[in-house]
Design brief:
This protein has four domains: about 100 residues, Rossmann fold, CATH 3.40.50; about 60 residues, Dna Ligase, domain 1 (2-Layer Sandwich); about 130 residues, D-amino Acid Aminotransferase, Chain A, domain 1, CATH 3.30.470; about 80 residues. It has 14 helices and 19 strands. α4 runs antiparallel to α5.
Amino acid sequence: MHVLMLSPGYPAEMPEFTRGLAEVGAQVIGVGDQPVAALPEKARRALSAYIQVRALFDEARTVQEVTAELRGRRIDRVESLWEPLMLLAARLRAALGCPGLDVEATVPFRDKEQMKRRLDAAGLRTPHHTEATDIAGCWAAAERIGYPLIVKPIAGAGSADTYRVDGPDDFREVLPRLRHVPRVSVEEFIDGEEYTFDTICVDGRILYYNVAWYRPRPLIARSHEWISPAVIALRDPDTEELAGGVRLGRAVLAALRFGTGFTHMEWYRKANGEVVFGEIGARPPGAHQVDQMNYAMDFDAFREWARAVVEGRCQVPSERRYNVATVFKRAQGQGRIRAIEGLNEIERRYGSAIVCNALLPVGAMRRNWQQTLVSDGFLTARHPQLRTVVEMADDIAANLRLSAG
């Protein structure tokens, strides 16, 4: 099978997906706007060919350049696992005659208002919502929906440019920060725990799924620098507490007519047990959550996604062995990392339960915590018992400290 892979080297997980395609026997043709020599080595090794385009985000030009380069060659699949390139992938599928999500099916995965309108029509519970394109529209939406509410970009990803608004004074403060966003969704604030529902599907059939728990929910984590956010991939996604969210996720995929590939959905569970849809992308989660899936089951989700794309099947272990927590750290101070405190004690306490240490080293420059959940690095820990994993995550959050200056 010949697979066109958009942006095989970026973001950080893309070389792993590219590697997965090659390992299941695909001939992988990369498309990007950087020279092939600039790609990570893992991505370069997995490619059978590479097409460098002038401007990857110029969809019309990129379609023209790629189709001209591929004239006379057979392409079986076009794959993109990066949110901003999903519509480009759909346009390339149309131009090359490939199966997969077309433009019409892709738009609801990118446009949060269309997404929710489709699910409203299917009778699924979404937050009360409306679209606004100017300040007057935002105020009108707030009056109609009521406070507290959430305002976020229609075509955003993650929780960037997403704000909770508790009243008119908050709204006056938030609106100037959204001047660069042309269309926003103004929606009901759902007070509850936040989870994911992540899948690998083939022709609409779910072959693998994962539920992860955000501690705290991303909106809170993005609002306070001192927080060390954690994401926990749950060993048992089939508990009674989570059953409503899993059913909702299956219904969402059916309503949006998703076919083959990875999906990442977020949903809420209120204190009264009601489950409410958040949003969904036709892509995997970021922030190394696919690595968590691998640690939870001792398998390779990157390769099994590729197997689903190429062979229409997955090889998934029957047993989920671990709960897996990733705790993201933010250094105190600005500049370069100058000290890491508490790491030796944590590693002595938990030993082999710490399966990944991706903290920035001393001397590295701090990252902007508002632009990346990964922040200044992370530790990942796993254990069969959820209570033990939560305790480890809380210990890492409280007692591992990075300082900068």
